[in-house]
């Protein structure tokens, strides 16, 4: 299957779905558990028919879904087709989408020695060094956020080495940044916008608001 570019995904017109870091995400407000269960059952039938399966999280008021072609390691036409079918199911059940509520958090660690740090963090976060892949620690169960290692020069001076990457839909990034600033934060660096904007809290701790645009 061919990997889709960000522009191809945007051109697909998936109004209910947004690409965050590596996958398509959607949130549907079901309102109650019974409706959510019916929705998930219908999505499950569609997934079985397509031979392609989303990650699904069912909670009392909502259902969250994540779509990516694991065998390719990217978003493909299979994901777009199933995303459209899931949206059709949601409309048929009267379940509205909430794309503005989507977010994905990744952990980033500055390090000058990934080979040394990687196995430690893999073992700590997942219980196995097998979760360390190149510059990432990936929990196969999805229980903990992805941790990626940002290359840096060796240094001993105390500085912030961990930061959060908060992935949000590209069309709500400005609103999210404005909310953080209103709540006492400040913009440290927006030179890479809309790809990412660096923010700091009142004590100087930094985080990045990230989107797929400009990548």
From TrEMBL:
<protein>
    <submittedName>
        <fullName>4a-hydroxytetrahydrobiopterin dehydratase</fullName>
        <ecNumber>4.2.1.96</ecNumber>
    </submittedName>
</protein>
<feature type="domain" description="Glyoxalase-like">
    <location>
        <begin position="107"/>
        <end position="210"/>
    </location>
</feature>
<dbReference type="Pfam" id="PF18029">
    <property type="entry name" value="Glyoxalase_6"/>
</dbReference>
<dbReference type="Pfam" id="PF01329">
    <property type="entry name" value="Pterin_4a"/>
</dbReference>
<dbReference type="GO" id="GO:0008124">
    <property type="term" value="F:4-alpha-hydroxytetrahydrobiopterin dehydratase activity"/>
</dbReference>
<keyword id="KW-0456">Lyase</keyword>
<dbReference type="InterPro" id="IPR001533">
    <property type="entry name" value="Pterin_deHydtase"/>
</dbReference>
<dbReference type="GO" id="GO:0006729">
    <property type="term" value="P:tetrahydrobiopterin biosynthetic process"/>
</dbReference>
<dbReference type="InterPro" id="IPR041581">
    <property type="entry name" value="Glyoxalase_6"/>
</dbReference>
